Amino acid sequence: MAIHIQRRHFLAALLGSTAVSPLAALAQQPALPIVGFIAGGAADQSTRYATAFKNGLGEAGFVEGQNVTVEYHWLEGQYDRLPALLDDLVRRRVAVIATPANRPATLAAAAATKTIPIVFGLAGDPVQLGLVASLARPGGNATGINFFSAELTAKRLRLLHDVVPRAVRIAVLVNPANPSTAASTWQEMQEVAPGLGLHLRILNASTADEIDTAFSSIAHERDDAVFVVTDQFFDSHREQFAASTMRGKIPAAYANRDLAAAGGLMSYGTSFADAFHQVGVYTGNILGGKKPNDLPVVQATKFEFIINLKAAAVLGIEVPPSLLAIADEVIE
Asked: Which CATH architecture has domain 150-269+304-331?
């Protein structure tokens, strides 16, 4: 009898362990690290940038859903969402906050946490902005990729002048909801414009209706061209810009190729896809154990000059062959 009892106990124990062990094993599996990804544009218009970020993560050995979870937050220019969003990410202690091509999110993240690693893609000097101690040794919890905005702004304004030499009165469209970028770019343009004989006039827009109002003002004041300051809210309204510039026959210069491809005359700026990719690589490096201070701020090296000849034809502009020769892409 004792043998039978022991056998029953043994079978019960065996069956019990078989039934429980998968759940126990599941409970023992550590949760995947979470990356809080914050971009300023719209998700449906930014697929290739999200893909570039994922490819960067993959290069560093991290695959979404397998060994990392990425929470995508697309602001669509609504920067007032940042405080609550970052409060939530900091409270949950996400592994990394990634802010590719998004100065407002980068500055807000730096103000929200001094411990969670931040990987940025940034126009402007991160040292002057107080994000890092130096490019070589960031010294805190932030690092990433930098494309100096002053040089880009000056060159884009010169290229606009070269493409449309008759343009003297330039409307400068900024997003007041992104005050740091708006202020620095306006200052940079004022330093360059007198040497080119250009007169600048600043306009504000942070909603779709305000974009329409700005173009009505441009038509009323008979500005010769519009210089659209880089902002992911503007990027997400590329079709509206294309329609407005074609309707008003106004040459437009942008920072992002997507707006030129949508119907703008030209763009010059850093490759956003390259920036998102590098942010993904550094995010993966940090997930793999590196500290932000181990990763020097990378200087952007890939820039794009795009000319849209279809838009030029509508505007009655003949682009000099010398400019076509140096363009990275000519849309025909």
From this structure: 3-Layer(aba) Sandwich (3.40)
Question: With 90 as the cut, is the pLDDT of residue 81 above it?
Answer: yes
- Residue 77 — pLDDT band, cuts 50, 70, 90? confident
With a cut of 70, say whether residue 5 has pLDDT above it.
no
Specify the 3-state DSSP secondary structure of 200. Answer: strand
Query: pLDDT tens for residues 112-132?
Result: 999 999 999 998 889 999 999
Q: Tokens 């690589």 appear where?
A: 281
Location of each CATH 3.40.50.2300 domain in the chain = 34-148+272-302, 150-269+304-331
Q: Phi/psi zone of residue 61: left (φ > 0), alpha (ψ -120 to 50 degrees), beta? A: left
User: What phi and psi, each to the nearest 5 degrees, are found at residue 96?
Assistant: -150, 145
250-303, pLDDT tens digit by residue?
A: 999 999 999 999 999 999 998 989 999 999 999 999 999 999 999 999 998 889
Kindly write down the DSSP assignment for every residue of 44-96, as one continuous string. GG-HHHHHHHHHHHHHTT--BTTTBEEEEEE-TT-GGGHHHHHHHHHHTT-SE
Q: Does domain 34-148+272-302 have CATH number 3.90.220.20?
A: no
Tell me, rounded to whole angstroms, the distance of Cα 318 from its chain centroid. Answer: 32
CB atoms within 10 A of CB 229: 23
Mention every residue, 6+ apart, whose C-beta is less than 8 A from residue 226.
170, 171, 172, 173, 215, 218, 245, 250, 251, 252, 253
User: In this model, does residue 214 exceed pLDDT 60?
Assistant: yes
Terminal-residue alpha carbon distance, the chain: 92
